[in-house]
Design goal:
By secondary structure, this protein is of the alpha/beta class. The chain contains ten helices and nine strands. The two termini are 46 Å apart.
């Protein structure tokens, strides 16, 4: 019975996975998963999934092609004129299914054909882990080694002459019991830091920030599936840059000008102080409408070429189209792509472009 239940459950999970995969673009662009995100699970709304079954009509209601009627007559009742009234029939129900973030990342990778991320160089740390690799004579019953215990009991009974092959009943004594034992070992643990930078000057509207929030959610989901430890840094900037928390990052708006170099300079200082490149896999994503103070462009390019890019696995620049931004900075980042293979630039005019933008950011395998 248990096997049948497990088999049905796995079949149901495959159906759910297929539904999510076929509607992934819709879930991404709407951003409805972000508000339902838990620590390790995401609740996804799906139309009610019903098991196919025969349904019988009312008795004496006729069959297919039976009963009175003329050729071309509509099969449904005619629609009445006038104001519509409230219905009395049940509607379709929405089923919310919990999916782990790892499974969601797997679906994203399959749908967008994303390569797996390869950690750069020796960017890992040694973290202590318990490994069960030996046997001892004392320990909790939850760690009792069944096979070793009974082998010891059989050997004792045979040596004492109390073992009866016709009645092979083995009752372990206290001295027979053996328990699994562990020792602490140092195992490599890949770690990564994601730095998000966003222009919060007056030219960035709430819609542009929502696009950034959706992209960051899916970037997080994919990168976190490849590392055991992830830390996230949020930087907002107008003419001056500040490190903030996640809530402030998506809901802050300033009215000042724009100096992108302030964000790059702050990101570089944070890396030097807290995330040495020989121990961390580093990712930086900058979202802006492309507006920047003209004299600031050379400083931005200098910071990227000489300071940031040599330390980063990947630098992604996403230009979110705004009715107030000039969009010029995108061209300068495009020029860097021919010189540095860890630079990606993506143009995001609206929500419909989010899926393609995520694919551009994550298809490098870095």
């Amino acid at each position: 019975m248990g096997q049948r239940i497990e088999r049905d459950y796995q079949r149901f999970r495959k159906i759910v996975r297929g539904k999510v995969k076929s509607n992934l673009s819709k879930y991404i662009t709407r951003g409805e998963l972000i508000g339902k995100k838990g620590r390790d699970l995401v609740s996804i709304p799906l139309p009610q999934i019903e098991i196919p079954q025969f349904r019988y009509g009312q008795k004496n209601s006729g069959g297919v092609g039976q009963g009175e009627g003329d050729v071309g007559q509509p099969l449904t009742a005619p629609q009445g004129e006038g104001q519509q009234k409230a219905g009395d029939q049940p509607g379709g129900h929405i089923l919310e299914v919990d999916i782990t973030l790892d499974e969601l990342a797997s679906i994203l990778g399959e749908e967008l054909a994303l390569p797996r991320i390869e950690p750069r160089g020796k960017k890992n740390i040694l973290a202590p882990r318990d490994r069960y690799s030996s046997i001892r004579q004392v320990g909790p019953e939850s760690l009792r080694h069944f096979k070793r215990t009974y082998k010891r009991a059989i050997r004792r009974m045979i040596s004492l002459g109390t073992y009866d092959p016709d009645d092979p009943r083995v009752i372990p004594e206290r001295a027979d019991k053996r328990y699994r034992s562990w020792k602490e070992v140092k195992l490599p643990q890949s770690v990564a830091c994601i730095i998000y930078m966003m222009d919060v000057s007056g030219s960035m509207t709430d819609e542009q920030k929502e696009i950034v929030r959706i992209e960051a959610f899916w970037i997080d989901t994919w990168i976190k599936a490849h590392y055991q430890g992830i830390e996230t840094v949020y930087i907002v900037h107008d003419a001056v840059a500040h490190e903030v928390d996640e809530q402030t990052f998506y809901h802050t708006r300033e009215s000042g000008g724009t100096k992108i170099s302030s964000a790059y300079d702050l990101a570089n200082r944070i890396i030097d102080q807290r995330y040495p490149p020989d121990q961390w896999n580093l990712y930086a994503f900058h979202f802006s409408d492309g507006d920047n103070w003209g004299d600031d462009v050379p400083k931005c390019l200098e910071l990227l070429k000489n300071d940031l890019l040599p330390k980063l696995n990947l630098f992604g620049y996403g230009q979110v189209e705004s009715p107030y931004g000039s969009g010029e900075f995108y061209d300068y980042i495009q020029e860097l792509r021919s010189e540095h293979d860890n630079v990606v630039a993506s143009h995001i005019p609206d929500r419909d472009a989010i899926v393609q933008s995520i694919k551009e950011f994550l298809s490098t395998g870095r």
